[in-house]
Design goal:
It is built from 6 helices and no strands. By secondary structure, it is mainly α. The chain has one domain. InterPro entries: DctQ (IPR055348), TRAP_DctQ (IPR007387).
Length: 189
């Protein structure tokens, strides 16, 4: 019995350290979420101005659409880590109600691993796109011609944050499952 308690202590300590890292990442994500909210409001204002300027004032609006898209891309990708932390992405609940708590925990961990692998690949490709756009000085094809390094950089940064969040969730899930099998109960979930 004391062997089981002694062997569980490192798992609990690892899980505690991972939870601290997760809390740190979540603090950063919350701060970035505020920035993303302002970006969404900014995109709405830019698009509203664009409609008003085009239809009422009969002005050309070359920059508004791209500026709004850049703001929306940034808000979408940079806020993804916070949404993942809350597990706020779309999920199918029908299967989870049929599974036991332990099997559901394993299923969630397996999905986190697959999602981590996909997002890690996506983040890597995003950084290569960003670097290529930055080095080559690529710009959009519009008359405004803003640098494409801006949306690619926002996409890469956001996907990197999401990948780190998923890596932490995979590691925490592994510690929780290890604690569950050692204790034979619900573990640290």
């Amino acid at each position: 019995m004391s062997g089981a308690v002694a062997s569980a202590e490192p798992t609990v300590a690892r899980s505690r350290a991972l939870r601290r890292l997760d809390a740190l990442l979540q603090g950063v994500s919350r701060l970035l979420m505020v920035v993303c909210m302002f970006a969404l409001v900014g995109a709405a204002l830019v698009l509203s101005y664009s409609v008003f300027a085009r239809h009422v004032l009969k002005l050309a609006t070359d920059w508004q659409d791209e500026a709004a898209v850049f703001l929306l891309v940034g808000a979408t990708f940079v806020s993804a880590a916070h949404v993942q932390h809350l597990r706020g992405h779309i999920g199918i609940e029908a299967i989870t109600t049929l599974l036991s708590a332990r099997v559901n925990r394993v299923r969630r961990w397996f999905v986190d691993i697959l999602t981590f692998l996909f997002c890690a690949f996506f983040a890597w490709k995003s950084w290569t796109l960003f670097w290529e756009a930055y080095v080559d000085g690529q710009t959009s094809s519009s008359t405004w011609g803003p640098p494409l390094a801006i949306p690619y950089g926002l996409m890469a940064f956001g996907m990197t944050l999401l990948t780190v969040q998923l890596l932490l969730q995979v590691a925490i899930g592994a510690c929780e499952m290890r604690g569950t099998t050692q204790h034979g109960t619900g573990g640290h979930a």
